[in-house]
Amino acid sequence: MLTDRPRAARAKTIKTERFPLLIYQRYYQVNRGLSILLILLGLALIGMAVIIRVVHSPLVSGDTGAVSHLGMIIFVFGIARYLLTWLPSRVAHVRCTPAGVRIQTPFMPVVFSYKRIVDNKPMRLGDVYHPDKQKGMGRKMLQAVWGETVVVVDLKGYPLSKKWLRMLMGPYLLTPRGTGFVFLVQDWMGLNRQIADYQHKWRASKRIPSAQRGLYSGR
Questions:
Q1: Rounded distance, CA 4 to CA 108, Å?
Q2: In the predicted structure, residue 15 carries a pLDDT above the cut 80
Q3: Disulfide engineering: 24 pairs with which of 79, 92, 199, 212, CB 3.0-4.6 Å?
Q4: How far apart are CA 106 and CA 205, in angstroms?
Q5: Residue pair 174/165 in contact by the 8 Å Cβ criterion
Q6: Where are the domains of the chain?
Q7: 3 state DSSP class of 17
Q8: What is the pLDDT, as a whole number, of residue 172?
Q9: pLDDT number for residue 17
Q10: CB burial string 14-37: b at 16+ within 10 A, e below
Q11: pLDDT band, residue 1 (cuts 50/70/90)
Q12: How far apart are CA 31 and CA 24, in angstroms?
């Protein structure tokens, strides 16, 4: 009983922080060039249509409205594409809370409790997503970070269906085999330590009878 009390007190001092998910930053970096190119192409077509209308060039026949309309479509598409890759890179993160691990996806948060965790461990990204099995955009996105360390959290089960999670997060936050999440963050040691500390706190709380927990917390 006496050993559990300081352990619970130490657990309350866990410093939580947000860990940006770098996989979304990689997705933005890979797609940024094409998005900017589409924006510039759309502006060029719109500008060309405006110049032709102002100059009334006899060398150009036909209605310039179609060119302007096409330019506007390309411009809007480029802007939308840019924002849909830039915004997730700014807001997506993972954070440990007393209730569980919170993953802020581009569309909605996903939270899983510590009782779901089987194991959490650091691994090399290339050992999780083998380079030989990646193709196309996925390979281009990951090739610069194959050697980076990620935190792999193995779970008893997902809080949502795996299909739905893939739609929300994309394929590179879920383990390709088994059940778990893969977190590519800059401070992987800090995240791994916080998950372990919170899980230790949760396990300790289950070992202390509820009446004693109330006594220690002042209730």
A1: 37
A2: no
A3: 92
A4: 33
A5: yes
A6: 4-21+94-211, 24-90
A7: coil
A8: 93
A9: 85
A10: eeeeebbbbbbbbbbebbeeebee
A11: very low
A12: 11
